[in-house]
Amino acid sequence: MIKQIKKTLPDWASVNSVANPLGPADPVNPCAFEHTDLNGDRNQRELFLRLHAYLVEDKNFTRMKINASELVTALSTNRTYLFEAVKAVTGKTLQQYINHLRQEEARQLLETTDELIEAIAAICGYNSVRTFYRLFRQTYHMSPAVYRKTVRE
User: Fold this and answer.
1) Angle subtended at Cα 68 by Cα 48 and Cα 88, rounded to the nearest 5 degrees
2) pTM for the model
């Protein structure tokens, strides 16, 4: 059964482990952003923050089978409004935003673990290692192996 998410904003002060939904703006405190710093109207921002909370809760973004239908049900919204809200707030499509979260997770795992790159791809929710490599290169302008080597030097 899909867990319903309340129609309230998360208490970000109590969710310190949740990364900034738009990427690390402040390396000391990645959660350092204000609700009003996000684009879109108030309702779009609130829906986006509920989406972000759902995705990072239990690392739902790493599930290979996560899809828009599940998110719509969990967030008690409709597909069109969800897509419009994500686009208005982030400038990305829903899938691009999920991939953003996956890339951040992969980056952290490459920096902190010795897991095989193929295992990291699977852990982060990619069902294709090739897709993982392609998206990682697009985001960080280097392969995962080169990234790992660079950050460890």
Assistant:
1) 35
2) 0.77
